[in-house]
Amino acid sequence: MRKLINVRMLAHLLIVVCSLSYQTNAQSNETWTGNQAIQWYTKMEWLNGLAAKPGDGINPEEFAKRYHANQAGWEKAFAFLKNTDFTRLRPGKYPIDDENVFATISEGPPRELSNSKWEAHQTFSDIHFVVKGKEKIGIIPVQKIKLNVAQEYNSARDIAFYTTEEGKFYVAEPGVFYIVTPTEAHNPSNKVDGYDGVKKVVVKVRITP
To answer: pTM for this one?
Structure first.
């Protein structure tokens, strides 16, 4: 009789655990949308002490999804931006987590704006972080311009180019960074009057399903 009671209790316990697990998974799948994503984003805890702020034009909901799908990668990316003295680093590629998270540093004159230089990625999200000078960066959802292909997607370079006269431009400068995910096309490295030299960092974070 006691064994039967124990078996029933164990079965009941398993049902409870499975139910809680299902509810947790369901909540996880529904999290990071709408107000939940915005509330998380605006707290800025994800900066982990980085003394810079996100610029306008970032999609909080999409970033929240990408961040929580690969939190370890994003934490390494922001730690790199926080702890690195970029005045000491030359242009080049810098691994942060092998090929999962890495940075490229560039320095030189910005380009004249081109409507055919809207780029988008499928494998990586970007953090655009200007160290010196100013440049313009445009951002627009890929969905709005996906038919205006200038160059087909190149998987080796993880890039496709689009042509559009739409999209909003923002000024990227020291202390302000921009995040673009594969759902957004962006047009970076454009000239701001009075600034002929720009040093910038682009940290790339591999996306996960």
So the answer is: 0.85
